[in-house]
Amino acid sequence: MTTEHTYRVIVRGTWDGLTDESRARLAAGADDHGLARMKFTPEGSLAYDAALRHFTYRFEVVSDAADGEEMAAAIAEDMARTALDDLGHGYRDLRSTATDQDTMKINRKGR
Fold first, then answer.
1. DSSP letter at 53?
2. Could you give the count of Cα atoms lying within 13 Å of 54 in the half-sphere of its Cβ?
């Protein structure tokens, strides 16, 4: 029997080789993709600023616990690549960090 864990993965990258059309679409949507609107979702949440230098994707990935955070990060990076390719936006230097929500310890202050 396999156990699944939920991972929160942040994928960061740099915009690269954006076409004029991509740049215009991204600039027009910058207000809708600010950090305040980011959520961890299965389909991913994209954030960037109007300067169009860097971006961040946040994913919630459910994966086999035995595969660990590295596999969850690889899955999220693949999802980010697919989404950005589908949108036609150029990018480079993807890197990610994953946190296993099922093993995360929460410290609560006493009352």
1. S
2. 8
